[in-house]
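ok, trying the design again with the full structure, not the truncated one.
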């Protein structure tokens, strides 16, 4: 009798699991495609466009650099409050994670970075930065607006969400490793996959580009102080010239790529800082140089780091100088290479193709640009893609990290709708086996 009860219970659990599986895949491919198109149509309505453009411009007027995004965080929370979307705060100081859906597993994440850059905007327009020396010159204001836009769309279709979409608003992408600190603070709890976009001036509006596998380089920074003995420039034999030693170090560092790296294995060493001396006739006591280094594999990256230190110290010694090399890991943590999950690439290709047409999808080459999104994708399956902003009728756009950078706001509805659709359809099409059947049912929020 007891055995019959156990068999009956197992059959009921199996039936329940089957019902969950059927419900997660009950929509036809045509219906799924139509849902993606409807999201984009909704995002292009005048009312939605006025709202999302307004949000982006508010953020643009008051840019905040890494770990100082207090007002940006406040704006995000205010918008989520208006939508009735619950959230947790803070993560990494200013970060916010909102939740749309059932509040239960499975969880899928969408991420936007919030920080601006320490540069003076020179674009003259009504919504120019009001904070001297700070500017959104990489499109993060647009990223935040698009994620809030995705939240707005998802919230209006929340009855169709089979699981929970986590909205990650992250500080300090620009060298500060905000993603790493978000993870340390528990922002990825329960999340099984994550997506993120970045605007691009090289891709037309209405198009996207990405690739499976390796997409972005690992990166780090270095700073070296080369010390000698200063003195009068007219009697250099009585000095130990650190400028000469530093100059030779700059040239020698270029050989690490041109003569030590496989020509088919892209690496970069760029010296972007050289400070020494303040008078025409005085050789200084020391010179400071600094820059960045990048590679398309974590192994090659660490080899490059080792050789940078060896070249600078060894070269300084040849010129009778000493050198101290600092890789600044406490302030600017190394970013690992960014790798796109193969299964998520297939999902992205299908969803984006349904929404904007396969003719508007592009497989791109890996870039030497780095992204701290890599910290997320090291832990769970992640996918990073580029959203087009180019419009030939409006003229060329300045590159990222340029004081003349402008964001084409026509791209905003595409980013909002695509992120919403990627998350919604992930939960519908990649629904994992029922956690109840595995004895893991619980409320995650």
């Amino acid at each position: 009798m007891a055995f019959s009860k156990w068999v009956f219970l197992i059959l009921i659990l199996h039936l329940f699991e089957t019902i969950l599986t059927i419900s997660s895949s009950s929509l036809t491919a045509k219906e799924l495609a139509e849902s993606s198109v409807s999201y984009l149509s909704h995002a292009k309505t005048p009312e939605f466009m006025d709202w999302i453009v307004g949000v982006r411009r508010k953020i643009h007027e008051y840019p905040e650099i890494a770990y100082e995004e207090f007002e940006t965080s406040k704006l995000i929370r205010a918008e989520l409050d208006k939508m009735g979307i619950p959230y947790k705060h803070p993560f990494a100081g200013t970060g916010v994670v909102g939740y749309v859906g059932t509040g239960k597993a499975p969880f899928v994440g969408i991420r936007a970075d919030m920080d601006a850059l320490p540069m003076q905007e020179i674009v003259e327009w009504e919504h120019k930065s009001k904070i001297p020396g700070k500017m959104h010159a990489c499109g993060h204001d647009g990223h935040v607006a698009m994620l809030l836009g995705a939240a707005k769309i998802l919230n209006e279709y929340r009855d169709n969400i089979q699981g929970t979409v986590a909205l990650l608003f992250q500080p300090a992408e620009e060298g500060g490793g905000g993603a790493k600190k978000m993870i340390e603070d528990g922002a990825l709890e329960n999340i099984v996959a994550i997506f993120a976009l970045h605007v691009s001036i090289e891709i037309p509006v209405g198009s996207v580009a990405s690739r499976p596998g390796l997409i972005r380089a690992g990166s780090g920074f270095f700073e070296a102080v080369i010390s000698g003995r200063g003195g009068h420039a007219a009697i250099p034999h009585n000095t130990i010239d650190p400028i000469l030693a530093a100059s030779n170090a700059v040239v020698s560092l270029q050989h690490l790529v041109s003569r030590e790296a496989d020509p088919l294995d892209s690496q970069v060493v760029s010296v972007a800082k050289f400070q020494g001396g303040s008078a025409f006739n005085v050789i200084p006591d020391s010179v400071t140089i600094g820059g960045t280094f990048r590679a398309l594999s974590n192994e090659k990256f660490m080899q490059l780091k080792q050789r940078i230190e060896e070249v600078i110290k060894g070269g300084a010694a040849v010129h009778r100088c000493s050198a101290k090399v600092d890789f600044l890991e406490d302030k600017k943590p190394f970013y690992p290479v960014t790798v796109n999950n193969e299964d998520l690439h297939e999902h992205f290709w299908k969803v984006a193709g349904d929404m904007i047409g396969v003719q508007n999808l592009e497989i791109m080459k890996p870039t030497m640009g780095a992204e701290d999104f890599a910290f997320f994708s090291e832990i769970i399956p992640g996918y990073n893609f580029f959203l087009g902003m180019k419009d030939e009728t409006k003229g060329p756009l300045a590159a990222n990290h340029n004081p003349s950078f402008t964001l084409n706001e026509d791209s905003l509805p595409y980013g909002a709708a695509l992120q919403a659709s990627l998350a919604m359809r992930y939960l519908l099409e990649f629904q994992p086996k029922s956690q109840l059947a595995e004895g893991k049912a619980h409320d995650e929020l």
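Keeping the full-length input from now on. Residues 1-25, 433-443 have pLDDT under 50 and may be disordered.
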